[in-house]
Write a structure and sequence with these properties.
Its EC number is 2.3.1.189. By secondary structure, the chain is an alpha+beta fold. 28% of the residues lie in helices and 28% in strands.
Length: 321
């Protein structure tokens, strides 16, 4: 097997990686690559020899056997990667070959395991990786048709108002508040205008589901960006036949307005929007160590459904025997 490290992907390579990810999703019941990485695959362009390698393609002869995306750390943060291996070529050393290529580029590498699958846990234990971060997925039913608890009434502070996002008007204000709200977040806080435009171009984007809360002077104070997934893979049977599911995509509050109940209020506004679409279920992602957010979502009826895990190399830095 060989590994090709690339600055960018051409159209054929991009299509091959996306096809590989779809096959793995059908087999495992969970997507192996995050939205952030899938966007990079679909919109890969502009790389140069001055850029760090980001895309790693593993070939078994001419067949694409695996793919990894490497996100180089900045400001002292470690590099992170996501990996997918062809389901028909697993348990033959393909994963280890790809990870070793990543380690040559980033010895401080951290690896994401989406869904915390048994194969990923076994790989981590064998090669000296330990869990350093958990990202919970929590779910809640919506609507009386499925027996869901009614949503509380959203209550905004006096003078605060809610409206939906207006493209061509609200981008700069949103980017400023998002950066402030997620200043300590390794992914969300780095979103750029280009990242935002990529998401606006996705089929799922709906400005009616992008809710902004403004203070009495018209300054953006909080937001809730919702999302609707057309379907979700069903573990075990390979059929992507789940009904559509809503997502609490991003909720943010400007630090200047924390402590006023805006987080809960804007979350409820978004949930009511998703419920109005006739969706029977909603999900969200939250860091496992964010006790305050987990407590808030639990009070709103969410329960943990599954977890993504980030692994880091053991202190010895050497693979286990």
């Amino acid at each position: 097997m060989r590994v090709d490290g690339l600055f960018q992907l051409d159209d054929d390579q991009s299509h091959a990686v996306l096809s590989l990810a779809r096959r793995a999703t059908t087999t495992d019941g969970v997507t192996p690559l995050s939205e952030h990485v899938l966007l990079h695959v679909r919109h890969s362009s502009g790389g140069s020899v001055d850029d760090p390698l980001s895309h790693f393609l593993l070939y078994d002869g001419t067949q694409l056997a695996g793919y990894a995306h490497l996100e180089h750390g900045s400001g002292g943060e470690p590099a992170t990667a996501e990996v997918v291996i062809d389901p028909d070529l697993r348990r033959g050393g393909a994963g280890r070959t790809l990870v070793q290529a990543l380690l040559k580029q980033a010895p401080d590498l951290r690896l994401w395991s989406h869904g915390h699958l048994a194969a990923a846990r076994a790989f981590a234990a064998r090669d000296g990786f330990t869990s350093v971060r958990e990202l919970w997925r929590m779910k809640r039913p919506l609507g009386p048709e499925v027996g869901a608890e009614p949503l509380p009434e959203p209550r905004l502070p006096e003078g605060f108002t809610a409206r939906t996002f207006v493209e061509g008007q609200d981008e700069d204000a949103w980017l400023r508040v998002n950066a402030r709200a997620f200043a300590q977040h390794p992914e969300q806080g780095r979103i750029t205008r280009a990242d935002l435009d990529q998401r606006f171009a996705e089929d799922w984007f709906d400005p009616d589901g992008f809710i902004l809360v403004e203070d009495p002077h018209g300054r953006l104070a909080a937001f809730h960006w919702t999302k609707v997934h057309a379907h979700a893979a069903t573990p075990g049977n390979g059929q992507p036949s789940h009904p559509p599911i809503g997502e609490v995509y991003v909720v943010g509050v400007d630090p200047d307005y924390q402590g006023h109940g805006l987080g809960t209020a804007v979350t409820l506004l978004g949930l009511r929007h998703l419920e109005s679409l006739g969706l029977a279920e909603v999900m969200l992602y939250v860091d496992g160590d964010n006790a305050a957010a987990i407590a808030t979502y639990t009070r709103l009826g969410f329960q943990r459904a599954d977890v993504d895990v980030m692994y880091s190399r053991a202190a010895s830095g050497e693979p286990a025997a």
